[in-house]
Amino acid sequence: MKVGLFIPCYVDQFYPQVGIATLQILEKIGLEVEFPLRQTCCGQPMANSGFEADSEPVMRLFVQHFKDYEYIVAPSGSCVLHVRERYEHLGHSAEITHIREKTFELCDFLVDVMKITDFGAVFPHKVGLHLSCHGQRGLRQAQSSEIVGEDFSKLKLLLSHVKGLELVDLDRKDECCGFGGTFCVSEEAVSARMGIDRVHDHEKHHAEVITGGDMSCLMHLEGIIRRQKKNIKVMHFAEILANH
Fold first, then answer.
1. β-pair type (71-74, 32-34)
2. What GO MF annotations does this protein's record show (predicted)?
């Protein structure tokens, strides 16, 4: 199986270790992984800011770079959801349909496609799990508290196999962190207040590390942690699964 590795802009620029950890995990389970060197943004920031027409050339470029891979995998629920839902505006050609159907967030790819949940990882720390809105409510990676139904979480399933990891229980396990892409710019005060609340919930339950599937959300929380000089780290779940 040949997999195209899609690394979102903010991961590439600010958290390259997350891309490296993702590559290590995929290669560990025997996949042939390629990183298209000319890949660019998926177009989400422009589209979410009301410039969807201007984002179309970027989206079409994404299709050209990844059309020949059996699967496209990215460590970002928000970018993957954008590809899956918004690329239908490009049309319904075989190439576009393939891209929309075969682009997976890393957690979904491991659990649903590869059906592997134990990577022999070791991480002896108390960890708080932040469920991003795009991953949870968009990609349906976990049960939402506002919906009646069976409780499940794919990320929690992966973390449950990590030796030494203690997952802490939060008061509000699926509340938004307030990042919301450009929302944190247009509604700075509200965004910051929401982020402070989320950090406090993790701190209250003595989490040493906050993890999740979207580095954008974790970046928002990390900024608050740094400003308030709190002794908590943020790590993408791929970094934890790659830790041995």
1. unpaired
2. oxidoreductase activity
pLDDT in tens, 18-56: 999 999 999 999 999 999 999 999 999 888 888 888 999
What domain range includes position 43?
2-113
Place of tokens 């939402």: 144
Same structural domain for residues 225 and 198?
yes
Q: Based on the domain organization, do 136 and 201 belong to the same domain?
A: yes
| Residue 181 belongs to some domain of the structure | yes
pLDDT in tens, 138-155: 999 999 888 888 889 999
What total number of domains does the chain contain?
2
Type of residue found at 137: R
Contact 113, 26 (CB under 8 A): no
Question: Could you tell me if 130 and 185 lie in one domain?
Answer: yes
- Final residue belonging to a domain, choices 113, 138, 163: 113
pLDDT, one tens digit per residue, over 71-101 is 999 999 999 999 999 999 999 999 999 999 9
| Residue 221 belongs to a domain | yes
8 Å CB contact between 105 and 237: no
For the chain, what is the HEC assignment?
A: CEEEECCCHHHHHHCHHHHHHHHHHHHHCCCEEECCCCCCCCCHHHHHCCCHHHHHHHHHHHHHHHCCCCEEEECCHHHHHHHHHHHHHHCCCHHHHHHHHHEEEHHHHHHHHCCCCCCCCECCCEEEEECCHHHHHHCCCECCCCCCCCCCEHHHHHHCCCECCEECCCCCCCCCCCCCCCHHHHCHHHHHHHHHHHHHHHHHCCCCEEEECCHHHHHHHHHHHHHCCCCCEEEEHHHHHCCC
